[in-house]
Each structure stands twice: as structure tokens, then as C-alpha cells.
Write a structure and sequence with these properties.
Helices cover 35% and strands 14% of the residues. The chain has 12 helices and 14 strands. The chain has a 7-stranded mixed β-sheet, with helices on both faces. The protein has a 3-stranded antiparallel β-sheet with strand order 11-14-13, covered by helices on one side. A two-stranded parallel ribbon has the order 1-12. It is globular.
């Protein structure tokens, strides 16, 4: 909607800016447009689109780059069938399944998603999906608090993803009785420091939240952490940002975890400027009534036919402010549908083979880098992501980019103690010949 000059002036005054140019003053001058696009008045829409498209085609894209970026969002191949199904109008335009008799397709799709998540996590029940992995982790902590309201200490592994830790802190910021403790990671292995966890595992401990794999790509000893958590009478929560890993690793449920959450972006969702994702949450049946969000159940209609409907909670449950189970009263249905189609296509065997391929390629890359004298920062076992120790990460990343290689993510921004490290991710989208190029580019960028 167009704004009048007075509208613009009022908005600028509110935010303390004098001119619209002040809003982009932080953008380097060489990245700003130096001239306006001059188009004659009265041109047809087709002509304008053609000219603007020609200008856009002059941009340098990243399609020719070898990418090793990860850090919580991963580049995996998305089968065409996923896009074909989620583009169907009956799914793309559906809003909410509150009217069960008119929403059987949507509710069945959600039910299948829940079933697949329980199989993947080894848990007993899953909800209809969450917004993303970080908010799912925060909701799991709130769920733990509802289950054990007299306990007050939330133990977050420092090796948990930074955005997960930040989101949990935001969710808990209004709860003054809650104390958040970060459990350090072992400087050698990159896994959560078990001894440090033992020191806080007492009758005040509410829950532990552990990455599986963690923010450094290291596969945590989740069973041992869960055992320590349960010894203190607390609730063990696992958080998985790389869902493909669950196709190969032991399921959190098999390791005794009480609540398993994570990000399902790897299941058929492409990387699109940071989103959307789809969080998942699975738990034990005993904790079912404290799960947030929607839950679809299977039943029979009056003619005995299989039918689906929302169960165990109502829409009104979510608008009771502080008395609500959660203020999440929806879910990422279309993204959950994409994950459902993807997992159905892959099947148990296909997902395992894909996970094995990711492990194979990432270890091949690590070996190639080691042969070039570039060692891993941590010694712990890893899935498809690992950290490298470099003399000057910034220089190395810039040198690699000049050779059309996105070499990784610097860890120093979130972990000052790891200012000498970058995080490298390898998936089935990478090719073996890229690893030597990566090693040469990084080596060339070091003193």
C-alpha cells in the first residue's frame, strides 16, 4: 500500500531517522545502486519484465560454487515428487483442520507425519510439528517444567546450537524461578563435559538439553548423559538439527531420552534464505497431556471407516494465556507434509543409505584435509559435519570464496574460545573432487 509523504515522515520520526537513506547507511557504498533504473513511461508490463530480467541476469550467482555450509541448515537433494505433492491446491491452500469431516486429507497427512517421527526418534508419540528446531527445544523445556514444577535448573550443553540456546533463554526469560546453566564442552572431544554435568545433577535439576549431533557435528554420548540426568530425577531432552543423522544413529528413545525434538529441514525442504523449517517433537505416552501444539488421532466413523481428527486438546486450550499448555496452536502443515512425502519416498532403507553416504563423504573430506595438513579441531566422532583448526579462519574463508568455494562457517562468532575454527558440512550434494579443491583453497589462505 502506498504511503503519503506525511506517513513516511511520521514513521521516520518514530524510529529516529531523518531520511530513508539512513535505513541502509550500514550497507557498504560499493554495494548500493549507483544509478536509478531509467524506464520510459508507458512501457508495457512485458517490456518492463524483460528489461528487469536482463539486469538481474547480470548478477553473479552461487550455482557454480562448491558449498560446505551447514551449521544447522543443510543442503540435501529434494526429489521432484516432494514439490509435486505439496504444490497441489488442496494442500497448499488448506488452513486449519478444526472441522474434521472436511479435513480428512490434511489430518491424515499430519497423522502420517507423527507416525514417521515416532519411528525415527524411537519415541511413543509425536505432535503435528513445531515452527522449527529451536522453538521445539524451548517448548520441550516448558513441557518439562509443567511435568516437574518444583525443579528450577535447566542445563543446556554449550555444544547445543547457539540459536537453540538463545531461543530457550528468550522463552524462559519471564520465569524468574528458572535458572539456566550452560554445561561446558570438552576441549579435546567437543562433546558435553560429563564431569561438569555431574556437578549440577542434583534434586534441583529440571532437565538437560543435548545436541544429537551437537553444534560441532560431534555425536554426543547421549545414553550416558541421559543416565546421569535420570539419576538426578530430571528429564532428558535431545535436540537434532540434522534429521538425516537419525537414519543411522541409535534413536533417542532407545537411549532413554524423555523428549526428542529437532529440525526437519533436511527432510525435503530446500534452503530458502533461512526458512521455513519444520520442528518436530516426540515424547513418552505418559507425558502426552503436557505436549504442546496439535495432535491428530486415528479413530473410526459411524460406518466403521478409518478417520482422523484432532484429539486431546481443543482450540480454546491455546488461548488461556499463562494457563495454556502452550501458545503454539498451529503447526507448519505444508512443511510437515513435505517431510512426510520425503520420508515416505526414502523409506527406512533409503534413509539409512543416505545417512551412510553422508558419513562416508564427510570422513573422506576430513581425510583429504588431514593429508594437506589441516586437522580437525575436535577428536569426537562426527556425522556429516566437523570443525577444522586454522591459523586465520577469516583469511582462509575469503581465499576459498575467491575460488568459488564456500568453505564453512566460522565458529568464533558464537564461540569466542573457538576463534581458530570453522565448521565444515558435507552432504550427498558434494562431490569427491571438491575435497581437494577445498584443501588447496584453505591451505592457500593460511600464513
Amino acid at each position: 500500500m502506498p504511503h503519503t509523504d506525511s506517513d513516511v515522515a511520521s514513521m521516520l520520526e518514530t524510529i529516529g531517522a531523518r531520511h530513508l537513506d539512513d535505513l541502509i547507511a550500514h550497507v557498504p557504498a560499493n554495494l548500493r545502486a549507483s544509478a536509478t533504473i531509467n524506464l520510459e513511461r508507458g512501457r508495457s508490463e512485458a517490456d518492463v519484465v524483460h528489461e528487469i530480467s536482463a539486469l538481474a541476469a547480470r548478477n553473479t550467482g552461487a550455482s557454480g560454487f562448491a558449498s560446505f555450509l551447514g551449521a544447522g541448515y543443510y543442503r540435501h537433494y529434494v526429489p521432484a515428487a516432494v514439490r509435486a505433492v505439496i504444490a497441489r491446491a488442496e494442500f497448499a491452500t488448506s488452513y486449519t483442520p478444526y472441522q474434521a469431516e472436511a479435513s480428512q486429507g490434511t489430518t491424515q497427512a499430519i497423522f502420517e507425519f507423527q507416525t514417521l517421527i515416532t519411528q525415527l526418534t524411537g519415541m511413543e508419540v509425536a505432535n503435528a510439528s513445531m515452527y522449527d528446531g529451536a522453538s521445539a527445544a524451548a517448548e520441550a523445556v516448558l513441557m518439562a517444567r509443567r511435568l516437574m514444577p518444583k525443579r528450577s535448573v535447566v542445563a543446556l550443553s554449550r555444544a547445543l546450537w547457539p540459536d537453540y540456546r538463545a531461543t530457550i533463554r528468550t522463552y524462559l526469560s519471564a520465569l524468574k524461578a528458572i535458572e539456566i546453566v550452560e554445561v561446558p564442552f570438552d576441549d579435546a572431544t567437543g562433546a558435553t563435559d560429563a564431569a561438569a554435568l555431574d556437578r549440577i545433577a542434583n534434586d534441583r535439576l529440571l532437565c538437560t538439553v543435548t545436541g544429537y549431533p551437537n553444534a560441532f557435528g560431534v555425536i554426543e554420548p547421549l545414553g550416558a548423559i541421559t543416565e546421569r540426568t535420570h539419576r538426578a530425577g530430571a528429564i532428558a531432552i535431545s535436540a537434532t538439527a540434522e534429521g538425516i543423522a537419525l537414519g543411522l544413529l541409535r534413536a533417542p528413545g532407545e537411549l532413554g531420552v524423555d523428549i526428542a525434538v529437532g529440525e526437519g529441514q533436511s527432510f525435503g525442504l530446500p534452503l530458502q534464505y533461512g526458512g521455513p523449517g519444520v520442528g518436530f517433537m516426540a515424547a513418552r505416552t505418559a507425558h502426552l497431556r503436557q505436549m504442546p501444539g496439535r495432535l491428530v488421532g486415528q479413530t473410526r466413523d459411524r460406518d466403521g471407516r478409518r478417520a482422523f481428527c484432532l484429539t486431546l486438546n481443543t482450540r480454546e486450550q491455546h488461548i488461556r494465556r499463562e494457563r495454556a499448555t502452550s501458545n503454539i496452536c498451529t503447526n507448519h502443515s505444508l512443511c510437515a507434509l513435505a517431510a512426510t512425502v520425503y520420508l515416505s519416498l526414502m523409506g527406512r532403507t533409503g534413509l539409512r543409505e543416505l545417512a551412510e553416504r553422508n558419513v562416508e563423504l564427510s570422513h573422506q573430506a576430513a581425510d583429504t584435509l588431514a593429508a594437506a595438513g589441516i586437522e580437525r579441531r575436535f577428536s569426537g566422532p562426527f556425522f556429516n559435519e566437523f570443525s577444522l583448526k586454522l591459523v586465520n579462519p577469516t583469511t582462509a574463508l575469503e581465499a576459498a570464496e575467491r575460488k568459488q568455494i564456500l568453505a564453512g562457517v566460522p565458529l568464533g562468532d558464537d564461540y569466542p574460545e573457538l576463534s581458530d575454527a570453522i565448521l565444515v558440512s558435507v552432504t550427498e550434494m558434494n562431490r569427491g573432487d571438491e575435497f581437494a579443491r577445498l584443501a588447496a583453497a584453505i591451505s592457500g589462505g593460511q600464513p
